[in-house]
Amino acid sequence: MITNGLVPGATPAAASGPEHVEEPVAYDAILLASFGGPEGQDDVIPFLRNVTRGRGIPEERLEEVAHHYRAFGGVSPINDQNRELKAALEAELARRGIDLPVLWGNRNWDPYLRDALAEAHERGFTKLIAVGTSAYSSYSSCRQYREDYAMALAETGLEGVIQIDKVRQFFDHPGFVEPFIEGTRDGIAELEARGIPRARIHVLFATHSVPTDDAVRSGPRDRDFGAGGAYAAQHLAVAEVVMREVGEGVGWDLVYQSRSGPPTQPWLEPDINDAIEELPAKGIEGLVIVPLGFISDHMEVKWDLDTEALETAGEHGIDAIRVPTPGVHAAFVSGLVDLVLERRDGIPTADRPALTELGPWYDVCRPGCCENVRLGFKPALAGLEP
Ligand SMILES: CC1=C(CCC(=O)O)c2cc3nc(cc4[nH]c(cc5[nH]c(cc1n2)c(C)c5CCC(=O)O)c(CCC(=O)O)c4C)C(CCC(=O)O)=C3C
Ligand SMILES: [Fe+2]
């Protein structure tokens, strides 16, 4: 258990992290913002059209993804997971005596962000703090949320009436990382208990692939994070923290999953299945898959990892374990509440917990953060433009 907000031996809020804190704001409510997913077979195609409108996703890819949802009765697990997260946040807020209602709205399916804003307006709320179910920086995980907040305000005519701020990207917040540390420790221990020595165990940290064009533009325009941009750098930094804590003598890599888009468009690689195929030649017998890019066990986890990647491992004679996502882990829920409070109270950067030298991340995104050149410029909240 992390007690002081920092993993022992990990880097505290580093002087090199961004110095960027906003004034305190008396928020009226929390806006839990998520992706959304279908809740029955009839929703599958309309949902996929919502997600991919204007994106140039090939028809075959849509059919393939529709099949994943169909295999689960047309119901994405993500909605129930968000209902549970909302209830857990409410319970934690009540436990701490904090009077902040939680509203829930999605980018791509019912209940939509615009529904949550309409409810906020009815209840007389004018200052919302958004908590997105997305920890890292990239167009899909940062800017697209901010564009959709702006669009939902425009759709409801509430521009200038309701203010929406967001908590920082929380990839290196202890509440998000601790469940992965625990899961990785347990996964390695379980494989050892099955008789596999540490030298023959490998850890693959899995996250969603994104177009390399998006990856290089992730994070602020004026900071250089290397080839995969802030997106890859943040994942690598968090994976290093996890391995430093519990991975002594065990090898690891960062790998990608759920690639979409036309085959001509480069996306981040290697794919997790390709990486698994290489493991037997390296003498690996046991594999721990850490879904580092994800908050809950939604379809990308249930299908791409639990169905496909575990099958690939089995085909190659590798004993594999997929560790849990943060879900409603107590540390994660309480960390999200801490993120809201640090923002509400304007806690200085130096007092904000962050386990990597990249953070604590910005309250307000810097100019050009997480741009998408393919889709062009769209207005976004909670960032400094242009
Ligand atoms: C970085 C990232 C995250 C992690 C951050 C975060 O969590 O926000 C994420 C999460 C998710 N992605 C999800 C579902 C989908 N993503 C798609 C398409 C895409 N994802 C992309 C990126 C990401 N996606 C990208 C670059 C595309 C190409 C189209 C585009 O440029 O936007 C498509 C269309 C079909 C396809 O192309 O695969 C679907 C159905 C669900 C819901 C799962 C459920 O229902 O349980 C979740 C949580
Ligand atoms: Fe996605």
UniProtKB/TrEMBL annotation:
Involved in coproporphyrin-dependent heme b biosynthesis. Catalyzes the insertion of ferrous iron into coproporphyrin III to form Fe-coproporphyrin III. Transmembrane segments: none annotated. Keywords: Cytoplasm, Heme biosynthesis, Iron, Lyase, Metal-binding, Porphyrin biosynthesis. Fe-coproporphyrin III binds at residues 76, 145. It is found in: Cytoplasm. NCBIfam families: hemH, PRK00035.2-1. Fe(2+) binds at residues 208, 300. This is Coproporphyrin III ferrochelatase. Its EC number is 4.99.1.9. It comes from Antiquaquibacter soli. PANTHER family: FERROCHELATASE (PTHR11108), FERROCHELATASE, MITOCHONDRIAL (PTHR11108:SF1). Belongs to the ferrochelatase family. Pathway: Porphyrin-containing compound metabolism; protoheme biosynthesis. InterPro entries: Ferrochelatase (IPR001015), Ferrochelatase_C (IPR033644), Ferrochelatase_N (IPR033659). The keyword Phosphoprotein does not apply. It catalyses: Fe-coproporphyrin III + 2 H(+) = coproporphyrin III + Fe(2+).
